[in-house]
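Need residues for this backbone.
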């Protein structure tokens, strides 16, 4: 959620300023670009060098450097930020922000910022409970600023009560949830399948295919990046997700069928990109089959068509998307599959396209909708293809 986001962290004069070091580290680890502004009082609690080292950016403390005259452009900083986070926010700074006072660089940046502003108060319980502080907090909220509520616990004074700054880990989660709420698929439940299935012949051997799961994982990651609550059902693969999602590992086509039937009713969007085996051995041997005869015959039976099964269960409020990997008469087969299996979209891959198919890092797709209208896409990386697929699905919503 925080990857490549520009965040200004304003640190005020409070013993909780020591937590800013952990907070900066967590933000940077999450992929954010962080610039820190220290008030003069904050510099008594934590050094600029500490925060500059962790943020990998210079720390701002004054409007300008007396020795060099270099100006810290508060307007430029305010426009650079995607989010302004004041943590800890002292009673003094909260009062200044509420009244529009501008006597330091942090409050100047605050008045210049066009981005969402979050503040995490830190003070003693009587200061927090004081009517003037509560009025100032209410004033900030009325401006559209966002409060990260203080916690309750032991305070620097030795008293116990409300006023502790939220822990850095809590602030990180709060910010991620805020970002997520603004995404187009926030709260939407999505089901994605990926990878191959392995159909056991004996305890050692199986029938499988060359699917790596890369396309399905890219789609699941893209949905998660758009704010969706993603469940990924995957066959055996070495792929790993780059996003936070719920992963269910399965082995066989029967396992994947069971998992899909359990999860499908809750999903608003389902994308079936797994390469599920069409056939499975009638009976798997209990022990390893020894090499003996010149010829070996294996009796197979059809697996249950998972996509068709879900198509029969699909409601008008659900979107179901399938994949077709073809080698001949591609468009004819894809459109027939779209209608037969009650799909909303079908994504066609052709093994005749160089650079597309299993284990590749690129793919070339054509998408058909229920009106048989087609959209052709150029060869792209699978992450870019995933974006194209998700955006086509988003149009249906």
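Answer:
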């Amino acid at each position: 959620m925080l990857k490549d986001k520009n965040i200004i962290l304003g640190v005020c004069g409070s013993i909780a300023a020591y937590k800013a070091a952990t907070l900066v580290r967590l933000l940077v680890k999450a992929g954010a670009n962080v610039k820190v502004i220290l008030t003069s009082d904050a510099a008594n609690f934590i050094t600029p060098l500490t925060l500059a080292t962790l943020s990998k950016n210079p720390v701002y403390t004054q409007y300008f450097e007396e020795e060099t005259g270099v100006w810290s452009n508060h307007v430029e900083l305010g426009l650079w930020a995607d989010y302004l986070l004041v943590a800890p926010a002292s009673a003094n700074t909260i009062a200044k922000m509420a009244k529009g006072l501008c006597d330091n660089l942090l409050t100047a940046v605050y008045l210049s910022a066009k981005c969402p502003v979050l503040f995490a108060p830190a003070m003693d319980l009587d200061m927090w409970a004081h009517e003037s502080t509560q009025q100032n907090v209410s004033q900030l909220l009325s401006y559209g600023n966002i409060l990260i509520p203080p916690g309750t616990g032991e305070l620097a004074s030795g008293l116990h009560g409300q006023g502790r700054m939220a822990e850095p880990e809590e602030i990180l989660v709060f910010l991620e949830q805020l970002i997520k709420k603004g995404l187009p698929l926030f709260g939407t439940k999505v089901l994605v399948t990926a990878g191959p299935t392995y159909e056991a012949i004996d305890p050692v051997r199986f029938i499988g295919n060359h699917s790596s799961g890369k396309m399905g994982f890219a789609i699941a990651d893209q949905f998660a990046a758009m704010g969706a609550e993603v469940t990924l059902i995957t066959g055996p693969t070495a792929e790993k997700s780059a996003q936070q999602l719920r992963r269910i590992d399965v082995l066989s086509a029967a396992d994947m069928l069971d998992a899909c039937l359990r999860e499908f009713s809750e999903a608003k969007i389902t994308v079936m990109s797994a390469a599920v085996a069409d056939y499975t051995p009638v009976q798997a041997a209990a022990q390893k089959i020894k090499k003996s005869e010149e010829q070996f015959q294996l009796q197979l039976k059809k697996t249950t068509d998972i996509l068709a099964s879900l198509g029969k269960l699909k409601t008008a409020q659900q979107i179901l998307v399938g994949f077709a990997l073809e080698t001949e008469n591609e468009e004819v087969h894809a459109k027939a599959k779209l209608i037969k299996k009650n799909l909303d979209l079908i994504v066609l891959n052709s093994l005749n396209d160089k650079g597309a198919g299993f284990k590749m890092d690129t793919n070339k797709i054509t998408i058909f909708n229920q009106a048989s209208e087609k959209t052709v896409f150029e060869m792209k990386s699978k992450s870019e293809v995933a974006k194209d697929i998700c955006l086509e699905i988003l149009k249906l919503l």
